[in-house]
């Protein structure tokens, strides 16, 4: 459960696309299911609103990484179901590799010991 002291983190640019692709790697899903999966697997640290999710899904569809068809959700409501294309699955591998390298580099910088200050050039 989120508290006022720990608001949800804003998603870094590009991270939402990666998380949506990963959510869809498990099979077709409608937008609400994608958002809920992201919230569940991140322990509710990341929250995806409709104003971010649906533009991301449409962007991924325009790129050919996902396709969508209308269907009926678990609660018998009409919903658009998104699924990864083969190009999207390949892109997921690329994005995962890139993001892992980035996260590893940031973590290394955060864990690095302090370095001595540069020598004073005027001394």
Structure description:
By secondary structure, the protein is an alpha+beta fold. It has one domain: Arc Repressor Mutant, subunit A (Orthogonal Bundle). The protein has a three-stranded antiparallel beta sheet with strand order 1-3-2. The chain is elongated and about 70 Å long.
Helix and strand layout, with pairings?
Elements: H1 15-24, E1 29-30, H2 31-41, H3 50-62, E2 66-72, E3 78-84, H4 86-111
Antiparallel strand pairs: 1-3, 2-3
Can you give me a brief rundown of this structure?
This protein is of the alpha+beta class. Helices cover 49% and strands 13% of the residues.
- Count of all domains: 1
According to DSSP, the number of beta strands is 3
Could you give the order of strands across the largest sheet? 1-3-2
What kind of assembly state do the chains in view correspond to?
single chain
Mean pLDDT: 87
DSSP helix fraction: 40-55%
CATH topology: Arc Repressor Mutant, subunit A
C-alpha end-to-end distance: 55 Å
* Main sheet attributes: strand count, strand direction, barrel closure: 3 strands, antiparallel
- In percent terms, what proportion of residues is strand? 5-15%
Radius of gyration: 19 Å
How many individual helices? Answer: 4
CATH architectural category:
Orthogonal Bundle
Tag the structure with descriptive keywords:
123 residues; elongated; Arc Repressor Mutant, subunit A; alpha+beta; three-stranded antiparallel sheet; 3 strands; single chain; 13% strand
